[in-house]
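Entry 14. Ran structure prediction on the chain below.
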Amino acid sequence: MDITETLPAQKFCHAPLTTFDYLEQRALDNPAHLALHISGNSLTYQQLYQDVMRVTRALESLVSQAETPVVAVGHMHPQLHLLLLLACENLGVVTFSFQGAESFQMANLPSKIDLILLDEPYALPETLTTKTLLLDIQWFKQTMTIPLDQAMLCPRVRCQLDSPHRLTQSSGTTANPKTMLLNRRQFEYMVQSQILNGAYTPQSVFLSIASFGVMGIYSRVTTCLRLGATVALGRAVDILQAVEVTHLWSVPIMLKNLLKELPQNWRKPAKLRIATGGGPLNHALRELALERLCTHISNGYGANEVGRIASMDNHGIGVVSAGVELRIVDENFRNVPEGEVGRIVVRSQGMINCYCCTDEHSQTFFKDGWFIPGDIGRLTGPRRLQLLGRGDDILNLGGIKQSAQLVEDHCMEHTQVKDAGVVAIQQADGNEVLMVALVTDDAQAWSEITSEVSPGLLQKWGHLFQQLRLLQFSKIPRTSTGKVKRNELRNILQRELTK
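Output, structure tokens:
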């Protein structure tokens, strides 16, 4: 059957196009072009378009009949997860993404969840009474047998710009993740930002190495599908060896681990652009990535609450993005002079105004139309921002403020240190203890590692603290975007200190 015979009926409206509308256009323009590459399996734009139609048709009778249904998708398989998200968009459904291993996130969601879609019966929080539906591989196999003439009857809801579109969460570095609701306008703002700044074309191949719960991933996947590019999903090293990837987004810790996984006979890709976010990119990691993996690397500063804020250079200095307003303020919310350190506050056209069902958090992070991300910085010139780190990531050692990230980067220069987390704890006598948690590749080499790491820490920062403690950890608590959960780490190390 020719694809033109499968086009669903449409009604003209003034709402913005959906991702499915773009898929339809790509399927007509270039039906054989590769849309998805998933661990050796490939899906053309015509196949993806038809699959989304079938899933939409099958899902139509299962979602809530509420005016604006909210569905949480917990499928571990990325292709099936993506099909459900695209089908839900066709139905005008607000979606939230999580994975089975991340089901603890569900406890932080507002109560208005109509349905949870799972591939396996994961152990969800007991307090969660929302209806769950298991859509396993057999359900999808059955769905793919729906005849095209029936699939073409799938609904297509085009929501207005102010309509709710996507639930997501903050990084949760200092407390439980805070849930926020993005409307179509805010989501489209993120997509347009990717188009303007990501250098994507229809010939691009974007490698996704994180879950769709990360907005930086979901917005980039959406961007690529709208442009007619290829999205690759799966184990990064395998994909990089099988496909000529052109774009990759990662947080610094994931990038560091990826570089460690590269085989000895690794062939560097011809044209790979890497964008990083979620934290600063140190010089050593940048240089190693350029040597072994990519031809271009950039570091972005942004937040789900407001979108892209700035692009940072090697020294943590960047240009504030077009359309973004940014100030540096003191504790009284007054602007500080250029060059002085203070709190960053920001606003943009893609900004939300509050969190869901958390008035206390909203009052803390939103004020007078501005978002307060909790980061410290200073303006070095017109629209030039030097990012010094999160307020919670600043170590106060003897009254001198230092970046915890800088200390952690120093520790991770040791080849056998896989990860590091640092906090400063003041004891009852007023003395500062620098607590350093290290994850090692070789637990047997602990004494050797400490004998090499400790002298460097003492040489650089020993004059600022009275005691140094190095502890061996199996894992540093981090968010899904790779940021250290500083408060959680502090509590763990505080208990270690009192033993």
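The chain has 14 helices and 26 strands. Will compare against last week's run tomorrow.
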